Amino acid sequence: MSKIKVTIWNEYRHEKRSEHIAAKIYPEGIHGAIASYLKKFDNFEVRTATLDEPFHGLPDEVLDNTDVLIWWGHIAHGEVSDEIVEKIYKKVLCGMGLIALHSAHLSKIFTKLMGTSCTLKWREIGEKERLWVVEPGHPIAEGIDEYIELEHEEMYGERFDIPQPDSLVFIGWFQGGEVFRSGCCFHRGYGKIFYFQPGHETYPIYYNEKILKVIKNAIEWAKPVKRIDTIQCYHIREPLEEVKISE
Ligand code: ZN
């Protein structure tokens, strides 16, 4: 079985700017934490890429060799090159999977693929979140119990301005009373997209085995079933059978 080629992209700014995050939460970066979990499995070929690398770590040879792209960004969405966003957009329409994590809801690539503002309500007081599985038969929920509890998380609340998801796998409930569509599946062209809400940078969420298991499941779900080289255009074709049109 061929391996799923996963590229974990991280803006990687909070981890450099905040001593607390660098020392106590993500010394290897958010990308490093997710990568070290995924590297335990034989079926993934894992690489990482960050904003400040040339081409944001995503030159053509990397995108051409990515089955599923994971995206974490927050304070520097505007610094991501439109040209690279356009390339990722086309790759998704041609079959590449995309997993948008947490504050990637406002990333250029996610909002372009959604076509809506993707805005939401938020509050950062470290309250509890309970992530309810609302589609237990979905492959992304495989191995997860009725819910996942996170002791501290940033609140994201409805309304989340996204198109109606093709499947809704998780609904998050927050201690302060709000709910949120926390695990949403979309199809765009040949590609699959999963938005997953947990992962505020000041909490060690990407070490939580259940959250990591959801990300692993999402990669397996979002891997391309069929990829094409370019976005196909409509063209004229001959009928397969003889068609007699009565006068
Ligand atoms: Zn956040």
Comma- or semicolon-separated keywords:
single chain, 247 residues, alpha/beta, Rossmann fold, 9-stranded mixed sheet, 7 helices, 9 strands, 29% strand, binds zinc ion
Descriptive account of the structure:
This protein has 247 residues and is an alpha/beta fold. It has a domain at 4-118 and 184-222: Class I glutamine amidotransferase (GATase) domain (Rossmann fold), CATH 3.40.50.880. The protein is 23% helix and 29% strand. The chain contains 7 helices and 9 strands. The chain has helices spanning 14-17, 19-25, 29-38, 60-63, 82-93, 108-114, 209-222, and strands at 4-10, 44-50, 68-72, 97-101, 121-133, 147-157, 167-174, 179-188, 191-196. Strands 2-1-3-4-9-8-7-5-6 form a 9-stranded mixed β-sheet. Strand 7 and strand 8 (179-188) form a beta hairpin. Helix 5 (82-93) packs across helix 6. The radius of gyration is 19 Å and the shape is globular. The mean pLDDT is 97. The protein binds zinc ion. Zinc ion binds next to loops.
For the termini, the CA-CA separation is: 56 Å
Which spans of ≥5 residues are poorly predicted at pLDDT below 50?
A: none
Average pLDDT? 97
What is the architecture of the domain at 4-118 and 184-222 at the second tier of CATH? 3-Layer(aba) Sandwich
Strand and helix order: EHHHEHEHEHEEEEEH
Q: Biggest sheet: strands, sense, closure?
A: 9 strands, mixed
Instruction: Write down the CATH topology of the domain at 4-118 and 184-222.
Output: Rossmann fold
Proportion of residues in β-strands:
25-35%
Across the major sheet, the strand order is: 2-1-3-4-9-8-7-5-6
The strand count comes to 9
Number of helices: 7
